Amino acid sequence: MDFNQMIKLKVKEIMNTNVVKAHPDTSLLDVCKKMVSNKRSEALILLKKKDEEEVQGIITLSDIAEIFKKNIDLMNPVKEYMQPYVYFFSPDELVIKARDFMLDKKIGSLPIWDGKRIIGVVDTVTLRDTYYKRTEELSNQLFDILNHLHEGVCVVDEQGIVTFWNSSAERLYRVKAEELLGKKLSDYFPTALLDKVLKQKKAIENITHSPKKGTYVAISAKPLFSEHELIGAVSSERDITEITKLSMELEQANDRVRFLEQEYNKLTRDQYQIGEIVGKSKKFTEAIILAQQVAKVNINVLITGESGTGKEVFARAIHRESGRKGDFIPINCSAIPYNLLESELFGYEGGAFTGALSKGKKGKFQLADEGTLFLDEIGEMPMEMQAKLLRVLEDGEVQPIGGEKSIKINTRIIAATNQDLEKMMEEGRFREDLYYRLNVVSIHLPPLRERKEDVPLLIDRFVKEFSNIHGYSIASISTDALKILTDYEWKGNIRELKNTIERLVVLSKGALITKDMIPLEILKSFQNKEERLEEEMKEYDLEKVLAYTEKNMIQEVMKITNWNKKRQQRFLTFLEVPCIIN
């Protein structure tokens, strides 16, 4: 197995298919026996519905050991002690992603779900035998690769002490690795760029640098982080004679770097990244599985759903899973004036129109070459622009404004809308041919009100996220506050929920989030619903309720007396219930 195969190794290739499953009413003792006999440390608690399984929870031998210490009767049903929330992965997920997820969640096993049932488990033993064992071999292979690179490579720790110096660096600077390893780089190169990178904690890309008198190199240097903590820096250096070969690549890289900086700042400002997609409701799980299936296939995708349901989050996830080499480039079709939309999408040549940059500008299609272009709010695109977009999708090339030649592109399109495009087609406001070009695969994201069971999961995720962002200890939430938030309709969906939780975390300052902190409009909605239920109860016919209760009582007496009429009459007379038995 080579390095690329190791990285692309999928969960289904290593998972253990020996899975212990139990019904929620099974006793703790029987579940424990099952785990021991199957040599498993966990059991999945589930219900079977036809050919599908509904996961209810999970319990481990460690859980049962703690229960045993408390002298709890092991004949009690497992459902009373299982952990209700279960994380699971698709069999087509990468092993490295499953490993990172297990480390992040601090769990020893990860059930594998194929969309209908649990088909396997990935655990620490499996990872040790298939992944970690191979990691050591690959690290040696990587060491050999770095030593055979044409570029000089230097790695320092957080103190600036050299930990790696390859053979090309030895030739470039005429300093042996034995002389440098374990010593400060600045002692040999006073103007070393890596010291600046360590201080600023920022990357420096492709610049001309003189680390030592008489020596000039083209160098790129980046800080190294582990779980957001600086652990060192690495540089890649070429002799100055290589500069001419790099000049054209540098110009292209500058455009991409500027755009990525803008996108990074936008994401940081909006705080819209939620990490792993959270959800266990059937509709949402189906959307996740469909996204995973289409990610690797180079086809256009249309994502539909109300505002705030996470359409861009899904689009980014599909791009990440696709393995495409290029970038994810988003554009909101409703946020850009029509007269600027064409230049934003296709770019322009220098001096193409008044106000144009003298050197021209690349359009979003070119920036997304070999990557993904996300067309948000596609329903807002003007008809004339739709025709031009269709031409690009058919020809696979764009022509910048003012340009004479077309440029070939390989760009995947993911479009999104909260509108009914089929209705717009009937009204003549959206092109039918463009719709079928975009809608090769459609993924619908249900609104939050249709996935109530996911609300507590999202609340937990956002509470932790904003507690960390604002520097608070992890806040907790009271039962009544959680009930109110779960019951709310969330017309703004995940975006509204996220903003509300951030407000509550800030108000709580890491303490308990209580009912009185909840915004008035949410409380009022909850109270109105409670009042409606009370009004409905008042509308019940009291005589009918009494008659129904009396009938049920008589039926119970008939059962108790074994249908003996005399005993029934004495029993009912004692209870002062009118006898209606014939």
Question: What would your notes on this structure say?
Answer:
One of its GO terms (biological process) is regulation of DNA-templated transcription. InterPro entries: AAA+_ATPase, AAA_lid_NorR, CBS_dom, CBS_dom_sf, P-loop_NTPase, PAS, PAS-like_dom_sf, PAS_fold. This protein has five domains: 123 residues, CBS-domain, CATH 3.10.580; 96 residues, PAS domain (Beta-Lactamase, 2-Layer Sandwich), CATH 3.30.450; 163 residues, P-loop containing nucleotide triphosphate hydrolases (Rossmann fold), CATH 3.40.50.300; 90 residues, Helicase, Ruva Protein, domain 3, CATH 1.10.8.60; 33 residues. 45% of the residues lie in helices and 19% in strands. The protein has 22 helices and 21 strands. The radius of gyration is 32 Å and the shape is globular. The C terminus is likely disordered.
